Automatic annotation (TrEMBL):
Gene3D superfamilies: SMI1/KNR4-like
SMART domains registered for this protein in UniProt: SMI1_KNR4 (SM00860)
Native organism: Gimesia fumaroli
InterPro entries given in the database record: Knr4/Smi1-like_dom (IPR018958), Knr4/Smi1-like_sf (IPR037883)
Domain of life assignment: Bacteria
Domain Knr4/Smi1-like: 31-130
Pfam short name (any one): SMI1_KNR4
The organism's taxonomic lineage, starting at the top: Bacteria, Pseudomonadati, Planctomycetota, Planctomycetia, Planctomycetales
Official protein name in the record: SMI1 / KNR4 family protein
């Protein structure tokens, strides 16, 4: 697993041309303070990688996708997941905590409900690198529903449709 600070340093200066030909960049925020992290950790169990992320940047704009700052995190203690990114349609990207049925640190796609989770990456740093690679190749991050329209397309979330086949969820209609 790549070290978070190294990953952020690697992607911090990147720009891409999005699918509309517009230039997009990575925008970092000021790092969270130790006090802010301590305060949030009283209610949200941050793993070491998330702590490193927030000590480096308190959220970010990853081209067109916002990674939440500390104040915007949402912790679902019943399912052991922390919401870090929103798709804008009721779907989210989450991180598994020790209380989750998934390995701690796993990045998950949530289709409207914590009952509908699909693993996407083993770690936040791995997910960030894969998101950047998809933006560089396609000009955007494809949502799982995009693979209905273009089933031959491959990408970070292309396996979600098959993983949810037969389950009661929004993606299945």
């Amino acid at each position: 697993m790549a070290k978070m600070k190294e990953v952020i340093a690697q992607i911090a200066e990147l720009t891409i041309e999005d699918e509309d030909g517009e230039e997009c960049e990575v925008e970092l925020e000021e790092p969270a303070s130790a006090e802010e992290l301590s305060d949030i950790s009283e209610n949200i169990p941050l793993n070491a990688e998330l702590i490193d992320f927030y000590l480096t940047t308190n959220g970010m704009l990853l081209f067109s996708d916002e990674i939440y700052d500390l104040e915007s995190l949402d912790y679902d203690s019943e399912n052991g997941i922390i919401t870090i990114h929103e798709w804008g349609n009721g779907d989210f990207t989450c991180i598994a905590t020790q209380q989750s049925k998934y390995p701690e640190g796993t990045v998950l796609f949530m289709n409207h409900s914590p009952d509908v989770l699909v693993p996407i990456a083993d770690s936040l740093s791995d997910w960030l690198l894969k998101v950047v690679a998809e933006y560089q190749k396609k000009g955007r991050l494809l949502h799982p529903a995009d693979y209905f329209r273009s089933p031959q397309e491959q990408g970070l979330y292309s396996h979600v449709i098959n993983a949810l086949r037969g389950r009661d969820c929004e993606l299945n209609g």
